[in-house]
Amino acid sequence: MRERTIASHFVRAALCGAERQGYDCLPLLRQAGIQPAVLEEPRARVDPEQFTRLLQLLWEFLDDEYLGFCHQPSKRGTFAMMCYAIIHCRTLEKALSRGALFYGLFAEAPTITLSREGDWARLSVDDSTLWDPDHFLVESLLVIWHRLASWLIGQRIRLEATSFAYAAPAHAGEYDLLFPGPRHLAAPGTSLLFHARYLSMPLLQDERSLKQFLEHSPADLLARPDGGDSLTSRIRRLLGRDCSDWPDLDTVAQQLHMSPQTLRRHLREEGSSFQELKDHLRRDLAIYHLGRDDLPIQDIAEQLGFSEPSAFHRAFKKWTGLTPGAYRAQEG
């Protein structure tokens, strides 16, 4: 659902390349509608639209689609030109191979490789030439290429595994949303593994649909939440947006055709619980509504099922480190 929110880690990480080059990023944050206080609070989160806007502003400001993480900039329009180079390919395999060749023309760019391993296909990104301390660019490339490939064939490509050539970072808790499925850390390389049957599928897009797609890409590809078919995403869909009428765990388990015990166990394996899922959904809905000025804070509290505004204030501060009023306030 669209109300998924983005952890403040990704806001800080996105700005690192520009800050390393000595730029003051506060004006960009304000233009994107993001409170500078968000950067200091690890629990804070932002609306996907704010994050999309920040990325677009950064690309424009730096004239670099690699956001300052590569030794050589990738001028704005490079991604769009790559898309035009692949849009007339007959199959996904041809499109991805041509896209990898396209980026291979640029010195010191991260190398993208498509390979087959029996019934599987692997898309690898070599980030050894990058200055990327938070792994922001390499993870962004994995997300963008996965979602671009899915868009090209008109169906979501199921990831069998995602591998990372580094140990679990502090933001690994966000991976469920970005890379659903098994994840391997401290692996020999950084890559996506998926079934090779997708490679023979025809492209369902053309130049006309590409033009529309590129209006907000690749920022929207990166910022648009995509929970796919993970258990937590399916439960969020079943809960819906009406917090006052949420089904209980037994009802949700029944709708998912499993016992309550099995559901609890699966959530535990994903490092979550039913109560935590409800809290996260409430938090994301709160951020969604606070980012839009049409509802007073008291009405938002009621919509989220809080008996009084003070309870909402306490809960929101616990979730994000900021009060609802401080979150909504925009600086000049």
Roughly what fraction of the amino acids lie in strands? 5-15%
- Following the backbone from N to C, one meets helices and strands in this order, namely EHHHEHHHEEHEHEEHHHHHHHHH
Q: Please provide the count of β strands.
A: 7
Q: Which descriptor suits the 3D outline?
A: globular
Mean pLDDT: 89
* Helix proportion range: 40-55%
Structural class by SSE content: alpha+beta
How would you portray this structure in words?
The protein has a five-stranded mixed sheet with strand order 3-4-7-5-6, covered by helices on one side. A two-stranded antiparallel ribbon has the order 1-2. The longest helix is centred in the middle third of the chain and has 18 residues, at 136-153. α5 runs antiparallel to α6. The two termini are 31 Å apart. Helices cover 48% and strands 9% of the residues. It is built from 17 helices and seven strands. β3 and β4 (120-126) form a beta hairpin. The chain is globular, with a radius of gyration of 21 Å. With 332 residues, it is an alpha+beta fold. The model has no long low-confidence stretch (mean pLDDT 89). Residues 233-330 form the HTH araC/xylS-type domain. Pfam families: Arabinose_bd, HTH_18. It comes from Pseudomonas aestuarii. Keywords: DNA-binding, Transcription, Transcription regulation. This is AraC family transcriptional regulator.
